[in-house]
Structure formats: C-alpha cells, structure tokens
Design brief:
The protein is about 30% helix and about 15% strand. The protein is of the alpha/beta class.
C-alpha cells in the first residue's frame, strides 16, 4: 500500500459551502458505508443522504449539484465541522470526492487529526472571514501551506495554525507511515549506535 499522496504546497480553488453547524461524521459518510477498508470510491458516499433519496435518486436539494469537484476543492462548513465519531472514513470520503481542504471557525479535533493523516488540510478561520465565505459560495481562495495563509484575492488574507508534523507530511506528500518509511536509513543508523 502506498503511503504517498499528492503534495500540498499551494492550492487555488473555488469553495463549496455547507453552512450548517455541527456537521458530524455520520452526515459526512453514513454508517452503512463503513464496511470497506478501501478508500477508493468512497467519494460517492460523501454526504450521501443529502445528495440522494432512499431509492438512490439525486435530490433536487443536492448541495453539490452542478459543481465540478476539480474546480471546487475547498469545503467551507459551519462551526464544529466533523464532530461525532472518530471514523477515518469521513476524510477518506471527502478526499475521494475531491476536497483538499476544509475551512470552518471550529473543526473537531479528531476529525482534524484524521484529515491531516489523509491529505486534507483543516483550516480554522476567524468568525469574520467565515461569515464572508458562507455568504460567497463558489468564491476563489488561495491556500499557501508554506506561509500558513489563506486569502481571498483582493479582499482579505488570514494566517492559520496547523500541527507542524501534519504540515510537514502534507508539504512532502506523505502520510505519517510514509514519513516514517522515509526515515528508515536514519532509524537503522540510530539502532546500530544504540545496541
């Protein structure tokens, strides 16, 4: 299994907005889709009950209808995004759908950790910045992970904080296991010196 993913240095993309607060991991991916250990194809299950009815037909109220995931890689969610259970399938589904970043005023800690491990950048912004994003769906943002800045060109720029190890993994395009594997030579040398 590969532990490399796409490097995240800068991202310029449009937003998809889900303004609801307390979007939990069961809404991100309903429990009935947790039977797989494969990440592939889980994007279809992302927000499934919001996008499809009981018969599997697209809902008229589908918040993602008509939006190209390649052009809308930044998900703006309401406060307390990713609360609920610790299911790692939630960031798997978002990543497979095409999201590279999630932005909110508050992102649940376990979701934040799982997102970082799976190539998604969780960014917490000020209430003022968040209100602007909620009111402007589809706006273009620039995320610069090296500078730790998110900006809406011509409008505002805000710095953000991120776990340093998670940041390093995203910049290098590896997950935590991939990072450890990249240190194998150093680990072998350390063990040789200390045995």
């Amino acid at each position: 299994m590969s532990h490399n993913s796409e490097q995240f240095i800068t991202l310029t993309s449009r937003t998809m907005v889900l303004a609801q607060e307390n979007i939990d991991t069961d809404q991100i991916i309903p429990a009935r889709f947790l039977t797989t250990t494969s990440r592939k194809g889980l994007g279809r299950a992302a927000f499934y009950d919001w996008r499809y009815d009981e018969a599997g037909m697209a809902r008229n109220s589908d918040p993602f209808a008509g939006k190209d995931p390649d052009e809308h890689q930044i998900l703006v969610g309401g406060s307390n995004f990713g609360c609920g259970s610790s299911r790692e399938h939630a960031p798997w589904a978002l990543a497979d759908f095409g999201f590279r970043a999630v932005v909110s005023t508050k992102i649940a800690d376990i979701f934040k950790s799982n997102a970082l491990k799976n190539g998604i950048l969780p960014i917490e912004v000020s209430a003022e910045t968040h209100a602007d994003l909620i009111a402007s769906p589809g706006t273009e943002l620039i995320i610069d992970l090296e500078r730790l800045e998110i900006s809406r060109p011509g409008k505002w720029k805000q710095s953000f904080e991120i776990d340093p190890f998670g940041r390093r993994c995203l910049l290098d395009g590896v997950d935590p296991l991939g990072f450890l594997q990249s240190c194998e030579d150093d680990i072998v040398k350390f063990e040789a010196r200390n045995t």
